[in-house]
Design a protein that fits this description.
The chain is built from two helices and six strands. The chain is an alpha+beta fold. Strands 1, 2, 3, 4, 5 and 6 form a six-stranded mixed sheet that branches.
Length: 96
């Protein structure tokens, strides 16, 4: 899903579950969950939209009217969500 398509979905009032995915140290990606399907949000060049902090991703979503997402870690050391090696944790985020 391109950034433009994602923004159109939001503009049309559809609010699918969103996940900010921590894939490795200081790399956060954004994906949309529609049923069992996961769609990665990409920029106009077709590259994955990347953020250097979860707060940056939250702000990007906030600027587009989104106030809720899930931070998903996928089993690595991440000081931003408490530190330590984790098996993959989901943190519900609300930004109002």
């Amino acid at each position: 899903m391109t950034q433009s398509e994602f923004e159109t979905v939001l503009a049309n009032g559809f609010r699918p579950p969103l996940e900010i995915v921590a894939t490795e140290m200081v790399i956060f990606l954004l994906r949309v969950r529609i049923g069992d399907e996961l769609l990665w949000v990409k920029n106009a060049k077709g590259e994955l939209l990347r953020f250097s902090a979860s707060q940056e991703a939250c702000r990007w979503l906030w600027d587009r009217g989104v106030t809720e997402a899930t931070l998903v870690t996928e089993g690595y050391w991440d000081a931003e969500v408490g530190g330590g090696s984790d098996p993959g944790i989901r943190h519900q985020l609300y930004f109002h």
